[in-house]
UniProtKB/TrEMBL annotation:
InterPro entries: Glutathione_peroxidase (IPR000889), GPX_AS (IPR029759), GPX_CS (IPR029760), Thioredoxin-like_sf (IPR036249), Thioredoxin_domain (IPR013766). Coiled coil: none annotated. Residues 1-159 form the Thioredoxin domain. The gene is gpo. PROSITE patterns: GLUTATHIONE_PEROXID_1, GLUTATHIONE_PEROXID_2, GLUTATHIONE_PEROXID_3, THIOREDOXIN_2. This is Glutathione peroxidase. It comes from Paenibacillus physcomitrellae. GO terms for molecular function: peroxidase activity. The lineage of its organism: Bacteria, Bacillati, Bacillota, Bacilli, Bacillales. Gene3D superfamilies: Glutaredoxin. It holds the Pfam family GSHPx.
């Protein structure tokens, strides 16, 4: 199954898949608005703004699996992200990223890009996955890897790939 075939729900409740992001470089992030890493939202938005014209997008997937650090409703999440962090990159409905109830997207991401010591499990909020224009999961970044610290890697992938005709 391709990353583009996986069903997702936007934070506004619209069901679809990731096919609108085909031919783009993606940074897929599990987020939480009440997490100590939440200030990364601003850096993620900056990356999204800076590189969107080159075919790059940040996709945020809120999750409350880690110390319940996410708000209850998708509406509250969307509002908090916009008001507190100026987020306008695509956000999706709250999901689980680990365990039996893990969303299929995160099952795919964690099987393609393992964590420390080969672990599949996501350890905390703001784990990031870099995906190339062909939907290949290239790299996994931990929560402590700030958007600023991975910008060079994103730029490298953007520079090494071109939009397909």
């Amino acid at each position: 199954m391709s990353i583009y075939d996986i069903e997702v729900e936007t934070i506004q409740g619209k069901i679809g898949n990731l096919s609108p992001y085909r031919d783009q470089v993606l940074l897929i992030v599990n987020t939480a608005t009440k997490c100590g890493f939440a200030p990364q939202f601003k850096g993620l938005q900056k990356l999204h703004d800076q590189y969107k014209d080159r075919g790059f997008a940040v996709l945020g997937f809120p999750s409350g699996q880690f110390a319940n650090q996410e708000l209850e409703s998708n509406e509250e999440v969307a509002e908090a992200c916009e008001i507190n962090f100026g987020v306008n990159f695509p956000l999706f409905a709250k999901i689980d990223v680990n365990g039996k109830t893990a969303h299929p997207l995160f099952r795919l991401l964690t099987s393609e890009a393992r964590g420390v010591f080969g672990s599949r499990a996501i350890k905390w909020n703001f784990t990031k996955f870099l995906v190339d224009r062909d939907g290949r999961v290239l790299k996994r970044f931990g929560p402590k890897d700030t958007p600023e610290s991975i910008e060079g890697e994103i730029r490298r992938v953007l520079d090494s790939s071109s939009v397909h005709a």
